Amino acid sequence: MLLTEISGVIAAELNIKQKQVTETEKLLEGGNTVPFIARYRKEATGSLDEEQIRTIEERLTYLKNLVKRQEEILDKIEEQGKLTDELKAAIEKAQKLQELEDLYLPYKQKKRTRASIAREKGLEPLADAIVSQEIQKGSALDAAADFVDEEKGVATAEDALSGARDIVAEVTMEEAELRKIMRESLWSAGSIVTELDLKEAEKNSEEAQVFQMYEAYEEPVRTLPSHRTLAINRGEKKGFLKVKLSVNHEENIEKIYKRIYKRPSIFADELKAAVEDGYKRLLFPALEREIRNILTENAEKQAIHVFGQNLKQLLLQAPLAGHTVMGLDPGYRTGCKMAVVDATGRVCDHGVLQVTKSDAERETSAKKVLSLIKKHHVTLISIGNGTASYETEEFTSSLIKENNLTDVHYLITNEAGASVYSASKLAKEELPEYDVTIRGAVSIARRVQDPLAELVKIDPQSIGVGQYQHDVNQKELAATLDAVIESAVNHVGVDLNTASVALLKHIAGINATIAKNIVAYRDENGVFSSRKDLKKVPRLGPAAFTQCAGFLRIHGEKCPLDNTSVHPESYELAENILTRLGFTLKDLSVKEKLSLLSDKRKTVDETKLANDLEAGLPTVHDILDALIKPGRDPREDLPAPLTRQAILNLSDIKTGSIMRGTVRNITDFGVFVDIGLKTAGLIHISELSKKRVKHPLDVVSVGDILNVMIINVDEKRGRIGLSLKQATNG
Question: Residue 682 is inside which H or E element, if any?
Answer without folding.
Answer: strand 681-684
